[in-house]
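Sequence in, structure out.
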Amino acid sequence: MLSPRVEGSGVLDLRIRTHDKDVSYTIPSCGASEDGQFLAHLAALANVTAVEIHSLVGFTPEMWRLLSGGLDLPRADFYVHDYHTLCPRINLFSQGRFCHVPGTDACDTCLVARPLAATYGLPTELWRQQGHDLLAHARAVIAPSVDAQRRLQQTYTDITVTMRGHEESPALTRRRQIVRTRQLDEHAPLVVGVIGGISQEKGANLLDEISLLIEKRGLPIKLVVIGYTSSRDLAKRCIVTGRYEEDALQQLINEHGIGLALFPALWPETYSYTLSAALDAQLPILATDLGAFAERLAERPYSWIISADASADQFLAAMLAIRDLATGNGNVSAEHNLALIG
């Protein structure tokens, strides 16, 4: 496994695992041609017969070039987990919203206005060219959802992107279609869980607005972040469990009595492992209409899709309608993918 130690530093950590050994090396300044030769030599010694690329965050443009045919290595299978080949921001998020992948001039303006991502001095046109070259050299480009496949294909029209969902057994697929609903009495709050690290892209500002309205209006909704958040205000108004170990997640969901999993993401997630956790917990789910949510929740009962452009008031209206369903007083359908809000 090859990974950058610090983003943009050029220093790489290489970890080699065999059936009886686990050895780590440090490559001081990968990017120069001699470093590329060293990597190729090391790969030959290790008898590398297959290469997978899962992330290039932190790798310098020179390393991108080396992985685009500059090394004597087998052509890689490139697995899409984000949109780093399109934009240094990875998640196509700008000015509080999904940017819809505009032209390169608009992207350059965005990156200058909010210089939060390592561009290595490359304008967007050259950034996308290096992304194109890398994907064109790959043996296969594999996206975990139709949505991710379509977004990449729209920009890189000459590259074949294959959709291959993460493998799950037929038994797991059937189990994830089952929903355990909680019946509430008329005075009990609906406990809404938001799972993971909740940044602005994941809807932190929206959740902050929602939590403020719940507090002001005394609404029977209780927000719980199973994880952590970048919003200090949100952390003051709801329960935040903090970072968790993966094997403790289902227990946390049960301990807090989550009755609805909310996914207020404002960028098109390519898959969402936290959604998998909610499916494993067999929770009712309310998610935005961006990214992989809609296709992964298709045909599943008690799973609703809401516009990512919906206001905090509209999100609350949807959650209150779902709560009414849990108390037996609602007229909201439990059918899959009900568009509660436009």
